[in-house]
What does this fold into?
Amino acid sequence: MEYKVILDTFEGPMDLLLHLIEKSQIDIYDIPINEITEQYLDYLAKMGDMDLEITSEFLIMAATLLEIKSKMLLPIPKNEYEPEQLEMEQIDPRSELVRSLVEYRKYKYASSKLRDFEEIQSKVYYKPKEDLSSFDNDDSDIIEMDLDKLVLVFKNLMLKGKIKEKTLELNEIERDDYTLEECIKKIKNKLKKNKVIRFYELFNCNTTRNEIISIFLSLLELVKSKYIVIYQKRNFDEIFIRRLKEEGDGING
Amino acid sequence: MGLMDEKEIKAIIEALLFIWGDPLSLTDISNILEMEEQQVQKILDEMMDDFEYNRRGIRIIRVRDKYQLSTRPEHYQWISKLTEKKENKGLSNAALETLAIIAYKQPITKSEVEAIRGVRCDKAIDTLLSRSLIREVGRLDKTGRPIVYGTTDEFLRYFGLEELKDLPKLDELNSIVENMEE
It folds into this structure.
């Protein structure tokens, strides 16, 4: 696994090729294409041996190198009758590759320069912006909270969570055995013992969705018939139910 | 506004930069002070020199037309003693190469960057975008209307540059490379 470290650092075929050229200390403008192609293919083979993914870009470069190599092997035709074509043939098959390698190398060095800058700047700290929200003229009231209310809100949330949980667990349809009449009777019984009850006293953690709906409808019915009043001191505060009439005693009491 | 003396103006600017924390533009500072931008810029230049000359622990840095307070890199070894060593998440080589090409050749499309690097750059560009080092500066008026990228002010700040022209000169870099080979 001696190649591991080196293999991991190449950013692509250009990077690899540049590395091979620099390692061999050869002139980038006069690349011995045979040698470099051989080294390049050798490298791909090693990558393959190590189960490293050889991306298509590496293969394209291999093909390019082989193409240049074969072009270099061809004898330069001397055609005196077609000087224009002669000019074309005389262009070094490596020139395009060299041009892009030189271009790439420029930015590779630029990025190493940027790396130095990054290193320095990573040691610089800035101060986080101060919270200036107190300067804003926001008229929205902040509701006074004391511990009791906070506990209540927490209780409400807990209860809500439990009811939800319960309904989610239902996987069968229950018989509707919880009628409105029964429910109203139940609430009235509760109100007989205490003139004022809390809304949440009507529920417990086993309350099903059906029951919640029935209780809610019952309360609406009782309010309509002026048997109870429902009140609340503040939004989201606890809801109280107060009995107005005495059961069986008509309006008196 | 000849009511305040320059010392007081400098003190106010220092306070503004301290409170704001983020880079604060010359325009904003001038508007607050109700002064000409040119005048404020001159004062800010002086302040930068003052901070430097007096070897203050805080310095004023400039990124284009914005100013910000920062610590000095040479104090890092002491600052770092205040806390656990922070994870220095520098850019990957791929992202840095991509960024270098964009910085020098902007405005530039992704495929132009890829042509130079010889590899795909989608991931690198995503990283650079998400770190606000580059941004979309427009679209090319040709098939597919490809996105054109350029660097941001955050890019300049990230590398401690005041302007784009402060980037190392490519020609100089190239001649250094050439000389190294000889």
Remarks:
- Residues 95-121 of chain A form the longest helix (27 residues).
- The radius of gyration of chain A is 42 Å.
